[in-house]
Design a protein that fits this description.
Lipocalin, mainly beta, elongated, about 190 residues, eight-stranded antiparallel β-barrel
């Protein structure tokens, strides 16, 4: 009588997964709806040595985030660059020009992230891609996050070199009129949606 070898444990697990319809789907992160009245995306720069601040009035954020399940978390923020407002009409109009945002060709900027790290306390980092005009750059955005009673409050800041995104061409290619360093400030308040 032949001796039948026992199937390997790995084969048993594989067979069980096939019969059960495959591995269980990973848990999904909670989704969040941004409160635009309590949120802002701003930039801080310098022009002829003076500091200015501008805000983008229109943006959308698709957020799935769970501090206990960072692997399933993702964020996509889409910004209408034509909604740039700095309190100076001449600067706002110039920002739409082809030397800057070239809003007719590239009406939106985007930040997309799906890799997150918890540092300590309420401090996190997000690895993602910031796309402005025709340029996408990998960045790491440090941010703080507080969640209480289904409301999330996030604050993040990062400094970027505008020339890395082809912002400021022609007469503005040097940093003489407009500084190269620009700080992006993100303040979001969101309600848990699901």
């Amino acid at each position: 009588m032949p001796i039948l070898a026992k199937p390997a444990t790995g084969l048993l697990v594989a067979a069980a997964l096939v019969l059960a319809g495959g591995p269980p789907a990973p848990a999904q992160a909670a989704t969040w709806t941004v409160d635009h009245d309590a949120s802002r995306i701003a930039v801080i720069g310098t022009q002829t040595g003076d500091t200015f601040e501008a805000e983008f009035q229109d943006f959308e954020a698709d957020i799935a985030f769970d501090p206990d399940n960072l692997a399933a978390s993702s964020v996509t923020v889409t910004i209408d660059v034509g909604s740039f407002e700095s309190g100076n009409d001449d600067r706002d109009e110039l920002a739409m020009d082809n030397q800057w945002f070239d809003v007719d060709t590239w009406p939106q900027a985007e930040f997309r992230a799906s890799t997150f790290r918890h540092l300590d306390g309420n401090r996190y980092e997000a690895d993602g891609t910031l796309r402005i005009r025709d340029v996408g750059r990998d960045i790491t955005l440090p941010f703080t996050l507080t969640i209480e009673d289904g409301t999330a409050t996030m604050h993040g800041e990062i400094e970027v070199d505008r020339s890395n995104f082809n912002l400021g061409q022609g007469d503005f290619a040097s940093g003489e009129l407009v500084g190269f360093d620009v700080t992006i400030v993100i303040d979001l308040t969101a309600q848990r949606a699901g």
